Give the backbone structure.
Amino acid sequence: MAESEIEAIWNTVQEFIYALQRRDPTVQRWLYPEGEARILLDLYGEEALLTLLKDYLERDRFILLRSGPVPEGKGLRLLEIGWVEGEEGRPKAEERVTLLLRRVRRRWQVEDIWPSPLDALLTVSRARELSQEERADPAVLFLAGASTVSLEGCGELDDVETLFVLGMEREGFSPREIVRAVRLWRDFVRSGRPAYRKPALYAAAVHYALSLLGHYGDTRQSIAAYYGVSARSLGARFVEMEKRLGLVHFDPRYSAFFAPETWKERWQAAGRPWPIPLSKPLDMGD
């Protein structure tokens, strides 16, 4: 009898976690090459993925709790697992992890990991709120950018990526945001390889884009000064990225935050189009 889809997915998850636990050097084979889990592994090493998987919990094993398709995501599947000890009942919310898997040809590969239940995926903003609690767990601290897990060799990064990865870490961006920045740059490069002599200019533009996506209020001038480039040139490179990739506020490809429904409702009620181009301020008084 042919293996069912859920069995194939579950087998992939088990093999991936066991390989990660034993520090198998071929663990990448279970990861989608362009996924966030793979970039996290390259940047932060195995410890980052084990932290997100809550492998630090003192439990004997993990079990499959539920799975579900990704809306409008063909070939994608969410899988929720939970860490258990002995024969105890269903895991609590803090013992659950959700994985996103992608089907590539006939194989399933892990694309992303959230240290939270399937129906309550943990955002960076929520992780930052929880990180203020006295006993915040390691996965929350990691997502909030307040973890002892740090950059580990930076993987195979190009000259632009190396600059903004290190720069954004120093400026307090979370690992999730840094990974999204890497994805943004790689998508931009694939869309038409840019020619440049000064990698700091594009590094600053990526940093600026993620600052806008996070609504942090950093100015173009301050980021330009940080990278030693002119604000005018940074602005030109950012506009190039925005147009080529169609960057918008709360962009699901690159933003680590979900759009508040109130923003969307207020904007549309005012007769304005949604989504909003990233270069346009989120100011209802405009």
